[in-house]
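User: ABD12 lipase. Structure?
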Amino acid sequence: HPSESGFTTDVLALYDWVKARSGNSSILFWGHSLGTGVATNAARKLQEERGVQVDAVVLESPYTSIREAAANIPITKIYRQFPGFEYLILDSMARAGMFFCSDENVKVLDCPLLILHAEDDGVLPPELGRKLYETAHKAYRDKSKVKFITFPEKLGLGHDYISFNPELPALVK
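Assistant: Predicted structure:
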């Protein structure tokens, strides 16, 4: 079964593989949606357990924790009013060992961190990206390493299409 620790272990194995073959190239972790929790987990583990810092972390359509994401995604809106929502939905992820606490992870990172969120994200509210940014910005000693970029609703990027924005390469640089 997929697990939070399994995802993180897989990313670290991939990091090792890429690092062995990349020479002096920069390596960054780029997570989208659920993958943002995996990216912050892996970056934190790399830093704390190996004393190695990834060159940068990019989080596209992120959340603070999987629990808060599940509590705020629009599809759960109709279920939130029913008794047992927290136990059946939110607590079940915790019982399965799924936490993905990006908000806790970014507090200890020291690498450059770029958070991207579209204002018209219909899956993960942009407020979660903003909250994650504020947590990181407060924790980072060097505030210039933390950036938050929002994309206006008129671009129609939603949850899945930030990567289609032609300005993205320049923004990431």
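The first strand starts at residue 28 and ends at 32. Helices lie at 4-21, 34-50, 66-72, 85-95, 102-106, 126-139, 168-172.
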